[in-house]
Amino acid sequence: MKKNNKFFVKFWGVRGSIACSDPKVAKYGGNTSCVEIRCGNEVFIFDSGTGIRYLGNELVKEDINNFRIFFSHTHYDHICGLPFFSPAFNQKNKIEFFSGHLKPKNNIKNVLSSIMKEPVWPVGLDIFPCSMNFTDFFAGENLVFSDDIQIKTCPLNHENGATGYRINFYDKSICYITDTNHIPGEPDKNILRLIEGANIVIYDSMFTEEEFKDRQHWGHSTWEEGAKLCDLAEAERLCIFHHDPSHEDSFMDKISIEAETKRPGTLVAREGLKIVL
Ligand SMILES: [Zn+2]
Ligand SMILES: [Zn+2]
């Protein structure tokens, strides 16, 4: 049988901090972080922001029973869609959760349970009849799923911790780097190592350099820093991600043109965008 080596990334939520619903953000989308990466028949999901509801609704139409959800971290915008992930309501399904920023003080099962618990939510995680597995690791560890699929990780600079991921499938790679605060003039060595020579780098570009001047400690970065890191690491394509909720479509269009001029090939993530490698 011929091996399925299709490798793609699809964006289901690209917004940072809080979901927004407004005709002025309709083009890029208002749902918070959720990114699907497919390696052949394997489904890898990064973050369960509000975008995961739409992804789940599509996945139930396919004959897939195993899902893996990796958390960049567990701030609200990256986890709040989980109660609406429809594959979780099928007892034939299995979901594995992975998190690299909580150990040893806490663990991912405990954190997810805390958002699905009275009085902040009427039902607990046990509402899901699917089987669930919870894995906590230390950011920096490698996760190996098969000879062909490796996930490398690194710690990011973010309040309460966060994890960056690199998914290697055969000779191609996609990196998911959000949320992270860069330090001006000091390119993040962990990130540089992780994204070296990668094909796609999805990067926390919440602010422009201009905005960043007054928001140096807000936990986020800029597309300009992303471009710098990609240049230094000789990565191919930067993908601007985790858009500020105040950045309307016209603003994002401007960023898209500026980024294309500065680093040709740079993309601005929007809901529904699919990149096949
Ligand atoms: Zn965020
Ligand atoms: Zn965060």
Notes on the structure:
This protein has 277 residues and is α/β, with parallel strands linked by helices. It has a single domain (7-276), classed as Metallo-beta-lactamase, Chain A, CATH 3.60.15.10. The protein is 20% helix and 27% strand. The chain contains seven helices and 14 strands. The protein has helices at 52-59, 76-79, 108-115, 189-195, 209-212, 223-232, 249-262; strands at 7-13, 34-39, 42-46, 66-71, 94-99, 131-136, 142-144, 149-156, 162-169, 172-177, 200-204, 237-241, 267-268, 274-276. The strands form two sheets. It has a seven-stranded mixed β-sheet with strand order 6-5-4-3-2-1-14. Strands 7-8-9-10-11-12-13 form a seven-stranded mixed β-sheet. The radius of gyration is 18 Å and the shape is globular. The protein binds zinc ion (2 copies).
